[in-house]
Fold this protein.
Amino acid sequence: MTDLIDSQLTGRPEKGPTALDCVICGHVPAAEVSFYRHVGLVLYVRFNRIQGPFCRDCGLARMRDATAETMISGLWSPVSVVLAPLAIVRNVLGRRTVLALDKPVPRPGQPESNLAPLPPARPVLRRFKAWFAPAVLATVIAVLTFADLPSAEKLDVVNGCVTFDNILYADTADFVRCDEKHDAVITSIEASWQDCDGPYLEKLYRYYCLAPAPGAPALVNVP
Ligand SMILES: [Zn+2]
């Protein structure tokens, strides 16, 4: 046991009598590697570590299952934005580690175990659900973005409308839709206040020349 820990601490290659056994099938060689599975369903959030050591075949199978589960059920909570990519990236790195191992064999000199390495699971990208869930998410995001377009309507345009705070300082003006209550209409947009004949509003170094809205009192500009 001491030898085993030593080899892990010193990072010596896991070869020879101190090598690790696969935690699932007991074969060698195995690498100290963990895979991660994230489940994020609105308020139900889990992040599991599936700890090795794993031989090449068991590691690959575990990695594929954990990654596919993350892609299917790990995209549906706010924290999934961080946790799902974290799990996937760590799994891809762990996959590289187990694929670098030789074919698993029973430890020499030991009675052969009746456990066999796990059969290779179906690759993640060949699983329909692993594509389907992200595709659904992408569609939802696209629909929401598209549905949001009216509220993202550009208001700071010529003939757009402006409302002032009660104090009537131009600095506290907001662009609004013209079917809402408004105080002024944008007559032109200039690069300098001097190009405005009358009152104007400055935002981000753009100068919005203004005319009073019908029925509104004359505008007072406070530069
Ligand atoms: Zn194994």
About this structure: Residues 22, 24-25, 27, 54-55, 57-58, 104, 117 surround zinc ion (CB under 6 Å). The beta strands are 30-31, 34-41, 44-51, 54-55, 161-163, 174-176, 184-190, 200-203, 206-212. Helices lie at 2-10, 56-73, 80-99, 128-147. Residues 134 and 140 are 10 Å apart (CA to CA).
